[in-house]
Write a structure and sequence with these properties.
- The protein folds into 3 domains: 175 residues, P-loop containing nucleotide triphosphate hydrolases (Rossmann fold); 83 residues, Helicase, Ruva Protein, domain 3; 102 residues, Arc Repressor Mutant, subunit A.
- A hairpin with a 5-residue loop joins β7 and β8.
- It is an alpha/beta fold and 426 residues long.
- The protein contains 16 helices and 8 strands.
- The strands form 2 sheets. The chain has a 5-stranded parallel beta sheet, sandwiched between helices. A 3-stranded antiparallel beta sheet has the order 6-8-7.
- The structure holds adenosine-5'-diphosphate and magnesium ion (MG).
- The site of magnesium ion has 3 residues, from α3.
């Protein structure tokens, strides 16, 4: 094509883009979205003064180059453990900006969990000189350990190593890593290392050997779950920066706090509810955020959680669940409550259509119990006089979820399949 053949450029016509309906509808309710994110560390942490003070008191000697005790922090998820430690880090940096006496190192063991990776991660935070850094691969645990020890000792300071989510590291390799880190001081001559371990698992110490338990838990701090009142204060502080006045309906914060306190006393969940509610209201073009938006947010969070569980279930469990759905929704059957036998009969039929192995009724009874434990179905034990006992099974998921399962690729062959009329089995 030469220049002359070129199609003359059309004059730029101002057209609506596919995004226009969304941007036009969207009200900007959120002034500062950042403060509603889970990664945001607020300047103040309401209701954690006592824990902050406790930790500060324990680690304060490090600022004069004395080794503080090791600390083990436990508390359920969302109780502010990670946030408090970030706060502590900020304060330590204020007290010793050039790290003359004390160096703070944070490792999240959910991300790096193998012992060598943990050591590697610590080393490369500590070792500042590029040429001394440890290569990412090829070094054995022992070599990384020795290099780290000799580097640390050359520094002459106190190292505070925070290991967050330590149960993750434990799952991989037991308490080996804690052993190496807590015994490092026996080799060190000038520097000292203190460990702060953090875990969401309140029973974590039961998993540790006696030796490590006493070493790691020289000091123990427990973060209790937040009460609804405390959650309200936490949310209010964030909301004041996040929204302009008058955007949040008065009932919203108490409602988010009440729901989250009832579930777990988890500040993360409370913040998620508020943020998602605000997002939904914005997207909807509403001018205020109300309890109704919180309800939507709640069901969306639940939907995400349940669909994740269902998606990752073994195939046989999916087929059992599908059988219960079919028994309930099929025109000819339409049974809200059904017996194990009725589930089994539909299950066998579906296995035939999908070409899957049919397990015994006993195995299916076990799968039904699992689904019951996951809260996906309700199974009520009923007594039938001389016939003994049986279970009455009922679905316990929303229609959104039912639709999601029905759309699953694996059930495609069922789309146009009409089940045989069932005879009631017991
Ligand atoms: N006391 C508090 N004040 C303000 N925000 C808090 C408080 N406690 C927790 N948060 C917030 O709640 C979320 C979850 O806290 P996080 O520290 O990650 O919990 P954990 O580490 O115990 O699971 C974070 O966004 C955090 O900033
Ligand atoms: Mg955490």
């Amino acid at each position: 094509m030469n220049g002359e053949d070129k199609i003359p450029e059309k004059k730029e016509v101002h057209r609506e883009s596919i995004f226009t309906p969304f941007t036009a509808k969207r009200n900007n309710l959120i002034k500062n979205r950042n403060v509603l994110q889970n990664t945001f560390i607020p300047i103040q942490l309401p209701h954690r003064d006592r824990e902050i003070e406790q930790i500060a008191e324990i680690i304060a000697p490090s600022l004069q180059k004395f080794k503080p005790s090791n600390i083990l922090i436990t508390g359920r998820t969302g109780t502010g453990k990670t946030a408090v430690l970030s706060y502590i880090e900020r304060e330590l940096k204020k007290a010793d900006p050039d790290e003359e006496n004390c160096c703070y190192v944070y490792v999240n063991c959910e991300v790096v969990d193998a012992p060598t990776s943990i050591l590697y991660n610590i080393s490369n935070q500590i070792i500042k000189e590029h040429e001394k850094k440890i290569p990412f691969t090829g070094w054995s645990f022992d070599k990384v350990y020795e290099t780290l020890v000799s580097y640390i000792d050359g520094e002459d300071k106190v190292f505070i190593v925070v290991l967050d989510e330590i149960d993750m590291a434990f799952q991989k390799k037991g308490d080996e890593i804690f052993y190496f880190l807590t015994t490092m001081n026996e080799i060190l001559k000038k520097s000292q290392v203190s460990i702060i371990g953090i875990t969401n698992n309140t029973k974590f110490t039961e998993l540790l050997s006696t030796k490590i338990k006493s070493r790691l838990g020289e000091e123990k701090i427990i973060f209790t779950s937040y009460t609804p009142e405390q959650l309200k204060d936490i949310l209010r502080e964030r909301a004041d920066t996040a929204f302009n006045p008058g955007i949040l309906d008065e009932a919203v914060i108490p409602y988010c706090a009440a729901i989250s306190a009832q579930d777990s006393g988890d500040a993360r969940r409370a913040l998620d509810l508020l943020r998602i509610a605000a997002d939904i209201a914005e997207r909807n073009g509403d001018t205020k955020i109300t309890e109704a938006h919180v309800n939507y947010a709640r069901s969306r969070i639940e939907l995400d959680a349940v669909s994740e569980v269902i998606k990752t279930m073994p195939m046989q469990s999916k087929i059992v669940l599908m059988s219960i759905i079919r028994n309930r929704d099929n025109e000819d059957i339409k049974k809200n409550r059904m017996t194990t036998g009725e589930v089994y009969s539909m299950y066998s039929e579906i296995c035939g259509v999908l070409g899957h192995q049919v397990l015994t009724q006993r195995r299916i009874t076990n799968i039904i119990s699992e689904l019951d434990m996951l809260g996906i179905i309700h199974a009520i034990v009923k007594s039938y006089g001389r016939n003994g006992r049986t279970k009455e099974i009922e679905l316990n998921i929303t229609n959104d979820i039912v639709e999601m399962i029905s759309r699953d690729e694996v059930f495609k062959p069922l789309l146009n399949y009409k089940p045989k009329k069932q005879t009631t089995l017991m």
